[in-house]
Write a structure and sequence with these properties.
130 residues; mainly alpha; two-stranded antiparallel ribbon; 2 strands; 55% helix; elongated
């Protein structure tokens, strides 16, 4: 059986990204609102601590979900999942590298030259249709 037939196409990857970033944004807004209440912050724009919470949310969202379930919420909807290049479950190290590589500026432009994103190639993972 040729595994490459099951690699998720770019349209699924784009849908995953849109859904996941929307969820991360919602988590950031809710977390920021909680911080504003707890620390009595009146203006979100003038307080850098509220922007500092986005990195842990971003990294935590991708790492926790992909490591535990091989899927983010976007991948659940598109019926895709992350696997290692051998097709087995990706390791914690692979998922961590994959997550950190998403922070590389303009990383998503790597899809213009390849069907796999830079975060896929550097972590030796891929997203497949299930």
């Amino acid at each position: 059986m040729n595994d490459s037939l099951y690699i998720a196409k770019i349209d699924f990857r784009i849908i995953n990204q849109i859904i996941d970033l929307a969820i991360i944004f919602i988590l950031w807004v809710v977390t920021s609102a909680i911080f504003m209440v707890i620390f009595d912050i009146e203006d979100m724009d003038s307080n850098p601590i509220l922007y500092a919470v986005v990195a842990p949310i971003f990294i935590g969202y991708y790492f926790i979900l992909e490591f535990l379930t091989q899927k983010t919420l976007g991948k659940v909807i598109t019926k895709t999942k992350v696997v290692s290049i051998t097709g087995s479950k990706a390791t914690a190290a692979q998922i961590f590298i994959r997550t950190i590589c998403r922070c590389i500026p303009f990383e998503y432009l790597s899809y213009l030259i390849s069907t796999a994103g830079l975060h896929d190639r550097l972590s030796a993972t891929r997203v497949i249709k299930i």
